[in-house]
Amino acid sequence: MEKIQKRPQSVRSLTWKKRWYRFSRNYMSVIGLVIVALVVIMAIFAKWITPYPEHAGAFTDFANANTAPSAAHIFGTDNSGRDIFTRVVFAFRNALKMAVIVLTISVPVGSVLGIIAGIRQGTWIDTVIMRFTDIFLSVPSMILALAIASILKPNMTNAMLAITVSWWPWYCRLTYSTARSISRENYVRYAELTGGSFAHIIFKEILPNCVSPILTKMTLDVGWVIMTGASLSYVGLGEQAPIPALGNMISSGIKYLPDQWWNTIFPALGIIVIILGFNLLGDGVSDLLAVEEE
Amino acid sequence: MEKHVENQDQDIVLDIKNLKKYFYMPKGVVVHAVEGVNLQLKRGETLGLVGESGSGKSTIAYDVIGMYKPTSGEIIFNGEPLHPDIHKRPLKQKGDMQIVFQDPGSSMNPRATIETNLAFPIKRHGGLKDRQAIHERALELLRFVGLPEEYAQKYPRSIGGGERQLACIARALASNPKLIILDEPTSALDVSIQAKVIRQLIDLQKELNLSYLFITHDLSLMRNLATKVAILYLGRLCEIAETAEFYSTPMHPYTQMLLSSIPVVTEEEENLRPVKLESRGEIPNPANMPTGCGFHTRCSRCMEICKTQHPQMKEVSPGHFVCCHAIEGKPVDTEAAVL
Amino acid sequence: MEKNGSFEIKDLKISYKVFNGELQVVDGMNLRLNSGERMGLVGEAGCGKTTTLKSVLGILPSNAVISSGEVLFNGEDVLKFDNKKMQEFRKKNCAMIFQDPSSALNPIFKVKDLMMNGMRNSLAKSKDWKKVAYEKAVSSLRDVMLPDPERIMENYPFQLSGGMRQRVCIAMAIATDRHLLLADEPTTSLDVTIQEQILKLIYKLSIEKKLSVILVTHSMGVIREMTDRVSVMYAGTVMEVGDTKDVLESPQHPYTKALIACIPKLTGSGVAEGIPGRVPDYLNPPKGCRYVDRCPYATAICREEKPKLTDCGKNHQIACHNCGR
């Protein structure tokens, strides 16, 4: 054909700049991004940024037990004399670790099952997968976790197992509806008509176009997985003492309310900050990924 | 004699025999989308399927390509019968027949570059595994349709609608097809871009001896593109003839109504139009078809027999067939005839 | 306001804010519409015709910026209307019909609710405004040739066909006496035979109700059937304007000529090559005439200076430096 106007930058970097522009117009998402970035950095570099890394574990110093927040211990100390700030940071680390592992397993499994059910809509495959999903969705995650914990030992691994098992159905539902509508698009029909294999259609045609809702939900879910994990450890089903977890720190600190409030309040604030950050970020993630007409 | 018949058979790329497609909806409602259609397409030619909504033109195309399973009837492609179920068709058949859709926006995977979109049929039907070879072939296809080589790295969303359609045509050519089904490929495009795309299609047809099944509602376009034109109304063929004959002597009342309704741009064209038949009435719902001839509710020449009995296909002149009670002609056995 | 509904757009410039600049879509648009006249606004996708219409009714998206120009209705600049005046303008003077009647009608309301809601505020707040509104609605439906209007009033939009829905939209537009009707591709999504009926209807109504109509379309054929005058738009400016017969039979502007040549004709004259080049980049539009990269007659001055609309025949103007080539 004819000359086209050449753009100075490459196509890729222009697209990302545009996406950042859209994303940054929403202040709340940017705040979310900042909070998440801080939390993640704190979690990764926990050993180096905390003043008393050895307090994250079995450590006792009863002389300093239950001291109020001060210059030496900005969040105060707990009943065993351990620095709460350090423990909260390590608890962040454990919480994020749990969220990453849970989502890494449940998201791909749930998504692929949902896509398979979506493109084979109306057939027995659809019915089997979705009814199976419905069974899991009808049991509240706490009850499921309690059931699993009562069979197995209560520890972090089993808590993660319990949460994973109760989390994948949501992704199945999500991709089911997305895959149903995408499978009617012309390019998917074309792939079927030209002899595309089942695997090709799932992984090359449909999955890349489901990425946006999946990633949005994943981002929002980090906060909720952590919340569920904290609830489990609060009732004693997750990490056991002395491993620092947001839930068990709150539960062990309850009996010291209201005088030694710092035992409970700071871990609780920690949960709030994490969930807030991921929620705000999650709202804007779709802006970062959306495919838009140029 | 036998050899002659053989040649004639080979000449017919697509032979649709008594195709019927019904959609069974809930509450016992049956939509008769296609009701006994017979068509032939010869190699290297363009057959225009024209109709408004509910005519069944797209349904016929989707039956041929395998998106829908025909309720009954036979489709012979390149001498071989087409299995109604797309999954049971051999790969070669799928490659020999390609489709270009109407909407350029959703025809290509938006998350893949044009080259990736082209690579899929290249790999599937060309047997090429080497990345470099696939890349070369993709560039070759883009050159075929007149798109610059840089487009291979672009995403579909960053090029215009007409260029996207050209890329879809390039994709259709990847498997060296014998037949391309074009479902209103330019209806969503501007006139100047439509001209480019149609020009390209015409050039490609000459170069590669392609056969086109072209579905549209644009009669002016068909005048300049099709070898034969077939008009459909509510799932049945009304009239079919070679292009020149069709436009000079349209016989079916619906054809005349259509030709009278299309907006034209010049005085010349205005004078070419048949007797101005006022368009009246609405297109009936295919789920609730009128008895007898589907067009009788709007037809100015409606007789008593039209309300109860469906008309038979008649030959009014060689190659010109009309399905109407009010027209005189020699009745034909549609299954045996070459339409 | 008096029945003299004179309408004029003067040098309108609209741009859209995007992340890397501004898309200067409408670039000095001029239009004059006499009372009772049917004016066609024809152009290809992206040339700014819908943007222009939307600016008249004040329904542009939030990232649109009207940098200059006036839209004068009866001498008043519509662009400077505040909310209250704009509401009045929409109720009393100007109505719009859109391309897709299915999305223009709220599917959860019956036709009678849709029509009466639109009239609620414009009728006097009398006790029996419902009865008056109902009568008016039925009579509008009759005006648009819908059979059995009382039954249609009780229907939901999904129970009607595309053509009938568009008729309902037109009925809503003419229910109260208005002077100006803006039609944005009203028949593009309809079948050809129905399209003809709707266009004839709009024509008939515009004469009966003394409406001025601006019909936006990309089809020259529709222009020929429906309008008295036509403005041909390209990339945000009017390139040619004149009586429809004149413009179609002897187009003067290179773009109009090329456009008409591209239209497939019933005479079987073949398919044109199309127009070389692409629509200019609205982010960095050319300084001079926007058609310069695609025009076979372009000269040096075309690159430097934007041509203004100048006379080149009776009631016929073009924006071209090489007028009459």
What does this structure look like?
- The complex is a heterotrimer of chains A (294), B (339) and C (325).
- Chain A is built from 11 helices and no strands.
- Chain A has helices at residues 11-24, 27-44, 46-49, 84-119, 124-138, 141-151, 156-182, 186-193, 198-234, 246-253, 262-289.
- In chain A, helix 2 packs across helix 4 and helix 2 crosses helix 11.
- The two termini of chain A are 20 Å apart.
- Helix content of chain B is 34%, strand content 23%.
- Chain B is globular, with a radius of gyration of 21 Å.
- Chain B has a single domain, classed as P-loop containing nucleotide triphosphate hydrolases (Rossmann fold, 3-Layer(aba) Sandwich).
- The two termini of chain B are 21 Å apart.
- Chain C has 325 residues and is an alpha/beta fold.
- Chain C has a single domain (7-318), classed as Rossmann fold.
- In chain C, strands 6-7-8-3-9-10-12-11 form an 8-stranded mixed β-sheet, sandwiched between helices.
- The mean pLDDT of chain C is 87.
- Classes of the chains: A mainly alpha (294), B alpha/beta (339), C alpha/beta (325).
- The B-C interface holds B 52-53, 160-161, 190-196, 198-199, 202, 217-221, 223-225, 243-244, 247, 257-269, 272-273, 279-280, 282-283 and C 44-45, 161-164, 191-197, 199, 218-222, 224-225, 248-249, 258-260, 262-275, 278.
Quick structural overview:
The complex is a heterotrimer of chains A (294), B (339) and C (325). Chain B is an alpha/beta fold and 339 residues long.
CATH architecture descriptor text of chain C: 3-Layer(aba) Sandwich
The CATH class name of chain C reads: Alpha Beta
Average pLDDT of chain C: 87
Assembly context of the chains: heterotrimer
Count of DSSP strands of chain C: 12
- Structural class determined from secondary elements of chain C: alpha/beta
Using only C-alpha atoms, the radius of gyration of chain A works out to 23 Å
Portion in beta strands of chain A = under 5%
Please give the share of residues in helix of chain A. Answer: over 70%
Share of helix among residues of chain C?
Answer: 25-40%
Number of helices of chain A: 11
Q: For the report, how would you describe the main beta sheet of chain A?
A: none
Which topology of chain C does CATH recognise? Rossmann fold
Report the sheet-strand fraction of chain C: 15-25%
SSE order of chain C, one letter for each helix or strand: EEEHEEHEHHHHHEHEHEEHHHEE
Terminal residue distance of chain C = 44 Å
Note the gap between the termini of chain A.
20 Å
Largest protein-protein interface: B-C, 44 and 41 residues
Inertia-based shape of chain A: globular
What's the structural domain tally of chain C? 1
